[in-house]
């Protein structure tokens, strides 16, 4: 059946509209952003100086590195040449940039173990649920629901 002119195609949103961006929050983002603002450089100026220093960079990539919620640039878009160019232009030691990157990625090494999730005090949680229950009598279904809720929280 032919499509009528009245029927509209569903609009597609671009990937950039779906991605949420934040204020610089990770150690890498804060390090670069504070040094950039202290030197009074814009994103375009910093990207141009980085390109001159040997790490070809677009201002849009730089903006994404500093505002993405992950807190660190994707390894495919941020090479060692970019770190060296940032080091030259901003006057930051290369070791500091790599340390900030590692801190932003939350890499767990054999020396540093991941922190376990906080344990749920199940008896206190059950007590709070029963205290919050308004009925005079507790049904079997409600008790089973409490138990299932506690099991989900303790996993």
Set down the secondary structure blueprint.
Blueprint lengths: L14 H4 L8 H12 L4 H11 L5 H9 L12 H11 L3 H12 L16 H11 L7 H15 L1
Helix pairs in contact: 2-6, 3-4, 3-5, 7-8
Architecture of the largest domain in CATH? Orthogonal Bundle
What's the total helix number? 8
The CATH homologous superfamily of the largest domain corresponds to lambda repressor-like DNA-binding domains
What number is the mean pLDDT?
81
Task: Give the biggest beta sheet.
Answer: none
Tally of domains: 2
| SSE ordering | HHHHHHHH
N-end to C-end Cα span: 53 Å
> Rounded to an integer, what's the Rg over CA atoms?
26 Å
Classify the helix fraction into a percent range.
40-55%
Question: How would you characterize this protein structure?
Answer:
The protein has helices at residues 15-18, 27-38, 43-53, 59-67, 80-90, 94-105, 122-132, 140-154. Helix 2 crosses helix 6, helix 3 (43-53) packs across helix 5 and helix 7 runs antiparallel to helix 8. The protein has 155 residues and is an all-alpha fold.
Descriptive keywords:
155 residues, mainly alpha
Could you give a quick summary of the protein structure above?
Helix content is 55%, strand content 0%.
